[in-house]
UniProtKB/TrEMBL annotation:
The lineage of its organism: Bacteria, Bacillati, Actinomycetota, Actinomycetes, Micrococcales. Residues 2-299 form the Phosphofructokinase domain. This is ATP-dependent 6-phosphofructokinase. The active site is at 130 (proton acceptor). Keywords: ATP-binding, Cytoplasm, Glycolysis, Kinase, Magnesium, Metal-binding, Nucleotide-binding, Transferase. ATP binds at residues 10, 72-73, 105-108. Its EC number is 2.7.1.11. Homodimer or homotetramer. It comes from the Bacteria. GO terms for cellular component: 6-phosphofructokinase complex. Belongs to the phosphofructokinase type A (PFKA) family. Mixed-substrate PFK group III subfamily. The record marks 107 as: Important for substrate specificity. The gene is pfkA. GO terms for biological process: canonical glycolysis; fructose 1,6-bisphosphate metabolic process; fructose 6-phosphate metabolic process. Coiled coil: none annotated.
């Protein structure tokens, strides 16, 4: 059995640990041959790959990033056609592959589903710091991003308190506010602004003023995809991202002067950005990623193609792609409502 491992989309802490888990189980235990394509689909198209074995993955678990690289290069030119799928099959045959192990988020696992529907053997390992992939309770990378954002909140609070300032921290989250919600709760933020639930600037300022009236300095966590009530679009920067979408960023910079103007409270913004993706993964993410990689290799052995390794409770279970893709796992209204009562 010869398996190709490929990472796609943005990097996420724990990807190295996932590859290591898959290789140690797949090569050492099951006797597979495994290769890793360099920079995702680019390496697949260009024939650039490395053999994966125990020495290759030695010491990877604590390392951030992904040692074989990842990219947003697509597997085919849109839209997918029978010809493009045939070309992909021919490439796999030229590499002597029996199947693929795709590590990625919603977009990658959607590709996995298309491949499986076309009769191509594939298993998926779910990663994304946004935790917005259905079919799994948590994706590896999320816990690390939340931990980094929580530390940023701790640091911003001390400087905010020193100057009686309101601090606005922008974290990642285009369509789902899981990072903002969890980091805000962990750091004791006075409000968390999520893409799923627009709020008016008047309401945000009322929360900030309430904090001031109690003798405290407010700290607001906002997801990059948050929209003010009545606005149809999120705040964007110039250019497009790797998927051709407007590049988000700057909502904290937009909110800070509005809050200061309406409340008279000096307000500063901080955009955390790609710091959330970098550095060593937390112990939780290392363990989750390793278990996910092991489960993926075991699924290949048992012929459970067409599935993604999802976390359900404390168990890693294989989930059909049809149950995992095509919909985002957003923050439920009840989760937001329970914390909103304590805002301000």
């Amino acid at each position: 059995m010869r398996i190709g491992v490929l990472c796609s989309g943005g990097d996420s802490p724990g990807m190295n640990a996932a590859i290591r888990g898959a290789v140690l189980r797949g090569v050492d235990v099951h006797g597979f041959e495994m290769i890793g394509f360099i920079d995702g689909w680019r390496g697949f198209h260009d024939g650039e790959f490395i053999e994966l074995d125990r020495p290759t993955v030695r010491g990877l678990s604590p390392l951030g990033g992904v040692f074989i690289g990842t990219s947003r290069v697509p597997p085919w030119e849109a839209p997918v056609t029978p010809e493009s799928l045939d070309a992909l099959r021919a490439k796999m045959t030229s590499y002597g592959l029996d199947g693929l192990m795709l590590i990625g988020g919603n977009g990658t696992q959607t590709v996995s589903s298309i491949l499986w529907d076309a009769g191509i053997n594939v298993v998926g390992l779910p990663k994304t710091i946004d935790n917005d992939l259905a079919g799994t309770d948590y994706t590896f990378g999320f816990d690390t991003a939340v931990s980094i954002a929580s530390e940023a909140i701790d640091r911003l609070r001390t400087t905010g308190d020193s100057h009686r300032r309101c601090m606005v921290l922008e974290v990642m989250g285009r369509d789902a506010g899981w990072i903002a919600l969890h980091a805000g709760m962990a750091g004791g933020a006075q409000a968390m602004l999520l893409p799923e639930f627009p709020e008016s600037i008047e309401q945000v300022c009322e929360w900030v003023a309430n904090v001031r009236d109690r003798g405290r300095s407010a700290l607001i966590v906002v997801a990059e995809g948050f929209k003010l009530e009545g606005s149809d679009d999120a705040v964007t920067r110039e250019g497009l991202d790797g998927f051709g979408r407007p590049r988000l960023g700057g909502v904290a910079d937009m909110l800070a002067p509005l809050i200061e103007e309406r409340t008279g409270i000096e307000t500063r913004s901080t955009v955390l950005g790609h710091v959330q993706r970098g550095g060593s993964p937390t112990a939780f993410d290392r363990v989750l990623a390793t278990r996910t990689g092991i489960a993926g290799a075991d699924a290949v052995l048992s012929g459970e193609w067409g599935n993604m390794a999802g976390l359900h409770g404390d168990r890693i279970e294989m989930v059909p792609f049809a149950e995992a893709v095509g919909k985002l796992k957003t923050v439920p209204e009840e989760r937001y409502a329970e914390v909103r009562l304590n805002f301000g």
